[in-house]
Design a protein that fits this description.
Elements lengths: L1 E5 L11 H13 L3 E7 L16 E6 L2 E6 L9 H16 L8 E6 L2 H13 L4 E5 L3 H8 L7 H14 L2 E4 L2 H9 L8 E3 L14 H7 L7 E6 L9 H13 L3 E6 L5 H7 L6 E4 L4 H10 L2 E5 L12 H6 L5 E4 L5 H9 L2 E4 L4 H13 L1 H18 L2 H22 L1
Parallel strand pairs: 1-2, 1-5, 2-4, 5-6, 6-7, 7-8, 9-10, 9-12, 10-11, 12-13, 13-14
Antiparallel strand pairs: 3-4
Helix pairs in contact: 2-3, 4-5, 7-10, 8-13
Amino acid sequence: MKVLVAGLNYAPEPSGNAPYTTKLTQGLAARGVTVSVLTGYPHYPEWKIADGYTGLSMKETHGSVTVKRLRSTVPKRPNGLGRLIMEVTFGARTVFQRWHRPDVVLVVSPALFSASFAVLRARLFGIPVGIWVQDLYSKGMEETSDAPSRLAPLMKRLESTILKAADGVNVIHERFRGHVVNELGVPAAKVRIIRNWTHVQHHPSFDRTSARDRLGWAPEDFVALHAGNMGLKQGLENVIDAAHLAGRSGSDVRFVLLGNGNQRGVLESKGDGAERLQFIEPLPDRAYSEALRSADVLIVNERPGVRDMSVPSKLTSYFVTGRPIVAATESGSATSHEMAVAGAGLRVDPGVPADLVAAIEQLQEDPVSAEDYGAAGRHYSEKFLSEESAIDNYVDWLSALASRRDSAG
């Protein structure tokens, strides 16, 4: 089977959907699938093209995966218009590339609008196409706007049209499937659920005390770590306010923000003077794994109002660490549902820093419960979020899509 994967994000980008796309292509190749990738220049989460990537296109080889990078615009501020232009320029470029006659095309959303170009070309040439939905655009517009947008109904119709045009749609969570089928009108028979998995490799040789020393954490620090993108939907002002509050109250909790994103500068300014706050630059895989396992509590934080637009990819990496989690998220959100099913920690309301501090201190005071939450998260990961199982399911799904071309022929 020959598979073409088209998506804006790929390694070496450390967060978002890039690690999953990269791992999937490598896993498919390891199972004998011939895989080629059309992707953009690395730019996320900094929203700046990485050093060393020049020209209009570049070719790379990642193991046995052939990767062609296509330059597109990258907005300095990733607002709606800037992201739309980026997606359209990338999507238009994918249409005019040589595809080398794949048996099936897999497009990754986000980016939805660039996916529409790949879907159109695939349909014109009779190539089966599947869409891998990581985030829901229409839900994102509804849930991250301070006021209801008149563009939201239009976005909903566009998203519905693009997903319906594909031969198959894969979503990463049961909640997504309900929205795609019931609200976007995609036929249920077209929609499949294949969960994401942890893309972090945890090395067995690990000295927690040494790792904490390297990170500047004192033995008495009770470290609450948020790892990943620092964007609007994360609402990390809540964590900054919690750090200020912890400093004023004499708490042992040390809040750590690991990663990067378009809001990092704003957050650093807001956190100026907070003694119980630390920012850490993105880390390579092994150091990242050690940072997660060296923390006492891991934080998921979402902006108030965010419910169904996404399931934080960091959860898959958090669960496997065996550390307890505190999630500042809406009651009934997809994140809340995932936390409850896993039994991996505590939920508090978003945008209430005092509640976030209190939940972390509750785990500090009750180490037995903290250990139980961490063990439950690891068990859930091992049982339901296996990388091997997920990639096997992708092979089955893509093979079924590819067989439609054979049947039509």
